Amino acid sequence: MRASPPRERADAARNRAAVLDAAAGLFRRHGVNAVSMDAVATAAGVGKGTLFRRFGDKAGLAVALLDARERELQDAIIFGAAPLGPGKPGDEPGQSDRLRAFVDAYLDYALAHLDLLRMSETGSPGARYRVGAYRFWHHHVALLLAHRADADADAHALLAPLAAEHLRAAVAELGEARVRRSMRALADALVAD
Amino acid sequence: MRASPPRERADAARNRAAVLDAAAGLFRRHGVNAVSMDAVATAAGVGKGTLFRRFGDKAGLAVALLDARERELQDAIIFGAAPLGPGKPGDEPGQSDRLRAFVDAYLDYALAHLDLLRMSETGSPGARYRVGAYRFWHHHVALLLAHRADADADAHALLAPLAAEHLRAAVAELGEARVRRSMRALADALVAD
DNA sequence: CACCGAATTGGACTACAGTCCGGTTATGGC
DNA sequence: GCCATAACCGGACTGTAGTCCAATTCGGTG
Predict the structure, then answer these.
(1) Phi and psi for A6 in degrees, rounded to 5?
(2) Across the interface, which of A157, A173, A178 has its CB nearest the CB of B182?
(3) Are the C-beta atoms of A96 and A121 separated by less than 8 Å?
(4) Which sign, positive or negative, has the C-alpha torsion A184, A185, A187, A188?
């Protein structure tokens, strides 16, 4: 938040874009886990130092790639139509509907990018909980659970089974439909109380 | 499950014990994350190959170290007194009480060995969900949730916030008391339904 | 007790994440 | 247009997890 942000240098911007392009391509072709940071750097025509300097670590690279999708979902939550968003004045959806809509929409997002999301969450210890996006989801869910004794804590508990690592295992064992149904049931149980 | 298990060789047994001793000591002194597998091998007077052959990977070593504690808890659940165990015939505890007791006891166990547990769960992708212990907890919880529409799925959802990685973050942010209370509330919400 | 097959051992080897710093290049003021 | 300076670049370097296989050791058997 500098007063006049020191504009990103032209070469830096070019490299950033090259890295994101190269990474997206390699990930799509070979799978997220099979691609090394060296490979990304080489494919982008960039040194390893540059890669790590710009993105911190592998998790940071994943976060950058997910950024656009996350923003879409966040916008829909803040400004969008009901029941996911707040809707028009005088026509606000109930909190139970909003929570359920959030769970559904989050699952759409997470399941569509599961490997990338997993990389962004498991890169370094506690990575998931430090990223801005998690704080956003948490804040939103806590608001919708405001009537409960400890909304903050309950919001964390509701988000836990939405972690990529957990979703991956749950979907592999139960299939997507049962996971979705169960998450909805959990949301209902928490608002109902 | 061979008919007559080919007894573990004497030297192998000696090495296994040496490794577990050395690992326990190093972990206690320097913290789980600061100890490399090389260091464990050296301290145990054993080659690296041996270490990995016996324990698979770092997560496997952690599982072996936790084994005794896990068994204690499992025994208490299967044979112990109510409400954690089944209790005496004619004096069975309610499922709601048993679930709550399980959550409490599991938190005792998990919080007492958080780093080790974290290592055992995050070693390789999906490690947590493949280990026998997890299957046990899941089976137990699913039984206690048998009245629900999809007990298996709900059991996974209840276990998700008990993952070491999640507990670590939650306790750091909220403190142990709030996490315990919130987990209990979640259990109640699921049996109540 | 000497031998044999099988299990075990250990350290050299690979691959990968992440760090560091000397050299290079862009940018804004003059 | 030129220069000082700060930001950026890239590849060599380190530390660690995990693999591999030739040599060794064990434990039962004749």
Answers:
(1) -65, 95
(2) A157
(3) no
(4) positive
Please state whether strand C lies within 7 Å of residue B8 at its CB atom: yes
pLDDT beneath 50: ranges in chain A: 1-4
pLDDT, one tens digit per residue, over B137-187 is: 999 999 999 999 999 999 999 999 999 999 999 999 999 999 999 999 999
The number of C-beta contacts closer than 8 angstroms across A and B is: 112
Using alpha carbons only, what angle is made at residue B73 by residues B1 and B159, rounded to the nearest 5 degrees? 95
- The residue type at A33: N
Residue spans of alpha helices (H) in A5-162: 10-30, 37-44, 48-55, 58-79, 95-112, 114-122, 127-130, 132-144, 151-159
Which residues are within 8 A (CB) of A167 and not within 5 positions of it... i.e. 6 or more apart?
A107, A110, A111, A114, A161, A179
Structure tokens at B6: 């080919």
| Least CB–CB distance from A157: residue in B129, B165, B183 | B183
Distance, in Å, from the CA atom of B153 to the CA atom of B135, rounded to the nearest integer, reads 13
- Which helix H or strand E contains B67, and what residues bound it? helix B58-79
Chain C nucleotides near the protein (CB, 7 A): 7-13, 15-21, 25-28
Structure tokens at A107: 């699952």
Tens of pLDDT, residue by residue over A140-155, are 999 999 999 999 999 9
Q: Is A131 exposed, middle or buried (0-12, 13-18, 19+ CB in 10 A)?
A: buried
Give the number of other Cβ atoms within 10 Å of residue B44's Cβ: 21
Pick the more confident residue, B102 or B47. Answer: B102
For residue A183, list chain B residues with Cβ-Cβ distance below 8 A: 157
- For B122-143, give one letter per residue: b (16+ CB within 10 A) or e: bbeeebbbebebbebbbebbbe
Q: Is there a cis peptide before residue A83, judged by omega within 30 degrees of 0?
A: yes
